[in-house]
């Protein structure tokens, strides 16, 4: 892990090609009224213009509070929901417009690991059938050594006993089930794995195991991850770069180090200052920012900057002009704030 | 936050996994879903008794007169052949030996009533199975398509369902029954047509089930892997709603027997010279005061079939429900159910902790190896939240 890397470290993925380029992704869920004749009375702006790129072998963490659009973003990237605008390019190919066989071919390369290991595995299928399903759906990827042998290899790879191939999901614990889900995701040798809160349903000790497994698999197969979570320390542990989401938009995007040691967006600062400190001697040594109020209704977000209603730095310009996600002044990372400024006081002394 | 979660060396991961494996292996038996369902079903005593009764009735009706009804079984008389009415057609069962010449008596034109009831039972069961088959297939198809695709497909299918529900079932079934009489295939055709009037309940139940399964992440996972809708419905959704479907089908069987009885009674069902239990009752309703056995024997068989199928459905519903964890020993026997056995004794027999009502403080010790939810199934529901 790059915990001890100094702030000015060079981005190790700077020269790697992008595997996934996301540009201006928008998803609005319509709010309708009426029973027979439904008319649209508004829209929940779940994802409202998100852009980033994911490079080969990199882990991009996405953090944000509940309802900020993290999971919708994951669904859009998997094409489980169709976006209203924007593009997603996988190695230069437009992922959103492909259909039929092309789509099936690209789907092989992007896989997902779900949050809840209790509902992500079909209770009526044995573990062997669950992990073999990708091969059944993509017969051209059929492994040379036979499906069953490959499934056993995958079970071994994720740290499960290959002899348990005939067991059913209900006979496994949460952590083991999540490993089964990971094995299923790995089956087709994907390039990108989207992890939609893969550890938030697990105990802390099991979280560490699953994250280390993901880490090992990344090193072994050169996978790229989009790692969605609401736990800041989990994201810090695994991510190379981190994006902070607020109300359907990215508030800040930078390397793990930039975000965690020098956050520039007030929302990121507030989030980080709310993380409990394990070291009791450091308590009180930093400034704690307590935000007032709740996140605004995503069906009716504030004009200009979406965070301005809860921001202590808000001025006239914040209400009229929407801040772009750009690099500002001395700050290396991208921040969507007119008043972006690093605040050292919220970071404990020896981070 | 000075440090993130400390990395755990991979060896530890492996050993923790091995610990879990050891725990799984130490549980001597592990059951698949199907085995669990079977065990729970056979622990349901009314269902098992009913199944035995139903099998007995089926075997009796088929072996006695043969399926052709032309005396190919061990009962030589045909349900069609008329003859002399002996002794006013009184049943000879237990009078002239065990069965006698006409165990269920004879009707007014001297036909052997045992053969007729057996023929009626065959036909009624055929109707029941046919109705259950066609109504379940149609209902599952409509429900699954409506639930999976939503949108205008759902709107159209469910409005059609509503229309069918709004029309009185008996009127609709009578129309279909009358129409089927003009078609070849006899009783089975009639049954398949009656099914066209009774699929609506299944369709609505299956749709509701599919709607909830749609939101499961394993369905999303299958979509994300590029699975075709047909595969998702057949491999992921229907196996998980099989409980609703099977249980509904059994209840449809019971309802169909009664519906056929009603239709035959009204004259829209099975047509003479073919007969069914309902037709027998209808033909002989005037004889109720003078020769009541012509009424009672078919009635008895209807009650027996409908009751046993209902109990089997009950048992299946309990067995398939995945939230059910208990098995045989935790269920009270019939003597407990009828209050013939003291509750405490019953609990003792089922391995539960006995609550002493008298005799002061006693040591309360559950028998070794027994837990509160019956014998160990190799899976302890309380384990679910625990982890390696």
From TrEMBL, chain A:
PROSITE patterns per the UniProt record, alphabetical: ABC_TRANSPORTER_1 (PS00211), ABC_TRANSPORTER_2 (PS50893)
Domain ABC transporter: residue ranges: 20-272
Residue spans crossing the bilayer: none
UniProt keyword annotations, A-Z: ATP-binding, Nucleotide-binding, Transport
Domain of life per record: Bacteria
The UniProt record lists the keyword rRNA-binding: no
GO molecular function, one term: ATP hydrolysis activity
Pfam families given in the database record: ABC_tran (PF00005), oligo_HPY (PF08352)
Any single GO BP term: peptide transport
Family membership: Belongs to the ABC transporter superfamily.
Protein name in the entry: Oligopeptide transport system ATP-binding protein
Organism: Nesterenkonia sandarakina
Lineage: Bacteria, Bacillati, Actinomycetota, Actinomycetes, Micrococcales
From TrEMBL, chain B:
CDD domains assigned: TM_PBP2
Transmembrane parts of this sequence: 47-67, 125-148, 160-180, 186-206, 241-259, 293-316
Keywords for this protein: Cell membrane, Membrane, Transmembrane, Transmembrane helix, Transport
Entry keyword Hydrolase: no
The ABC transmembrane type-1 domain, residue ranges: 121-313
Stretches for region Disordered: 345-388
Primary location recorded for the protein, binned into one broad class: membrane
GO terms for cellular component: plasma membrane
InterPro entries: BP-dependent_transpt_permease, MetI-like, MetI-like_sf, OppC_N
Comp. bias intervals (Polar residues): 352-365
GO biological process per UniProt: transmembrane transport
Membrane topology summary: Multi-pass membrane protein
Tree of life domain: Bacteria
Matching Pfam families: BPD_transp_1, OppC_N
Stored Gene3D superfamilies: MetI-like
Subcellular locations according to the entry: Cell membrane
Keyword Metal-binding: no
Family according to the record: Belongs to the binding-protein-dependent transport system permease family.
Protein name, as recorded: Peptide/nickel transport system permease protein
Organism listed in the record: Nesterenkonia sandarakina
Organism lineage: Bacteria, Bacillati, Actinomycetota, Actinomycetes, Micrococcales
């Amino acid at each position: 892990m790059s915990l001890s890397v100094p702030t000015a470290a060079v981005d190790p993925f700077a020269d790697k090609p992008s595997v996934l380029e996301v540009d201006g992704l928008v998803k609005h869920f319509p709010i309708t009224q009426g029973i027979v004749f439904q008319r649209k009375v508004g829209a929940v702006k779940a994802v409202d213009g998100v852009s980033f790129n994911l490079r080969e072998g990199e882990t991009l963490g996405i953090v944000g509070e509940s309802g900020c659009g993290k999971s919708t973003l994951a669904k859009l990237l998997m094409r489980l929901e169709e976006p209203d605008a924007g593009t997603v390019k996988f190695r230069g190919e437009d992922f959103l417009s492909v259909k039929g066989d092309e789509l099936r071919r690209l789907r092989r390369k992007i896989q997902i690991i779900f949050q809840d290991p209790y509902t992500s595995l079909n209770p009526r299928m044995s573990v062997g059938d669950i992990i073999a399903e990708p091969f059944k759906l993509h017969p051209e990827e059929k492994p040379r050594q036979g499906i069953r042998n490959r499934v056993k290899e995958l079970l071994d790879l994720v740290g499960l006993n290959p002899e348990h191939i005939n067991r059913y999901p209900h006979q496994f614990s949460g952590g083991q089930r999540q490993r089964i889900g990971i094995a299923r995701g790995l089956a087709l040798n994907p390039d990108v794995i989207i992890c939609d809160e893969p550890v938030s349903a697990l105990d802390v000790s099991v979280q560490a195991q699953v994250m280390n497994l993901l880490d090992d698999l990344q090193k072994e197969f050169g996978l790229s991850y989009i790692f969605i979570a609401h736990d800041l320390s989990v994201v810090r542990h695994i991510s190379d770069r981190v994006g902070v989401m607020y109300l359907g938009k990215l508030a800040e995007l930078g390397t793990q180090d930039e975000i965690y040691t020098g956050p520039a967006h007030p929302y990121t600062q507030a989030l980080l200052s709310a993380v409990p400190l394990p070291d009791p001697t450091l308590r009180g040594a930093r400034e704690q920012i307590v935000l007032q109020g709740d996140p605004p209704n995503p069906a009716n977000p504030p004009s200009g900057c979406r965070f301005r209603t809860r921001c202590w730095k808000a001025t006239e310009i914040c209400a009229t002009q929407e801040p772009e996600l750009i690099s500002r002044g001395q700050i290396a990372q991208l921040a969507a704030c007119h008043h972006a400024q690093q605040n050292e006081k919220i970071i404990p002394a020896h981070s | 936050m000075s440090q993130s979660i400390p990395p755990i060396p991979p060896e530890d991961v492996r050993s923790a996994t091995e610990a879990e494996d050891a725990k799984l292996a130490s549980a001597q038996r592990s059951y698949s879903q199907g085995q669990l369902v079977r065990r729970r079903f056979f622990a349901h005593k009314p269902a098992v008794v009913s199944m035995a009764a139903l099998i007995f009735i089926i075997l009796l009706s088929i072996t006695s007169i043969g399926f052709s009804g032309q005396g190919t079984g061990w009962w030589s008389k045909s349900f069609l052949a008329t003859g002399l009415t002996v002794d006013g057609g009184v049943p000879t069962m237990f009078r002239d030996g065990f069965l006698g010449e006409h165990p269920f008596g004879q009707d007014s034109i001297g036909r052997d009533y045992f053969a007729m009831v057996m023929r009626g039972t065959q036909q009624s069961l055929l109707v029941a199975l046919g109705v259950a088959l066609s109504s379940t297939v149609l209902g599952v198809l409509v429900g699954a398509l409506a639930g999976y695709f939503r949108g205008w497909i759902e709107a159209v299918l469910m409005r059609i369902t509503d229309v069918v529900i709004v029309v009185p079932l008996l009127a609709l079934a009578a129309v279909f029954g009358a129409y089927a009489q003009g078609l070849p295939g006899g009783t089975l055709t009639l049954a398949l047509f009656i099914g066209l009037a009774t699929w609506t309940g299944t369709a609505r139940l299956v749709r509701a089930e599919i709607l909830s399964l749609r939101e499961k992440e394993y369905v999303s996972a299958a979509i994300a892997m590029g699975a075709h809708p047909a595969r998702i419905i057949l491999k992921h959704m229907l196996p998980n709603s099989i409980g609703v479907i099977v249980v509904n089908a059994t209840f449809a069987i019971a309802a169909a027997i009664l519906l056929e009885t009603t239709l035959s009674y009204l004259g829209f069902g099975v047509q003479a010279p073919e007969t069914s239990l309902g037709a027998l009752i209808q033909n002989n309703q005037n004889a109720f005061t003078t020769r009541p056995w012509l009424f009672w024997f078919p009635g008895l068989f209807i009650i027996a079939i409908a009751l046993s199928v209902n109990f089997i459905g009950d048992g299946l519903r309990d067995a398939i429900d995945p939230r059910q964890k208990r098995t045989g020993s935790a269920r009270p026997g019939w003597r407990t159910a009828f209050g013939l056995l003291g509750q405490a004794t019953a609990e003792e027999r089922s391995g539960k902790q006995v609550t002493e009502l008298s005799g002061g403080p006693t040591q309360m010790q559950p028998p070794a190896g027994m837990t509160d939810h019956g014998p160990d199934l190799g899976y302890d529901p309380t384990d679910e939240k625990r982890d390696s």
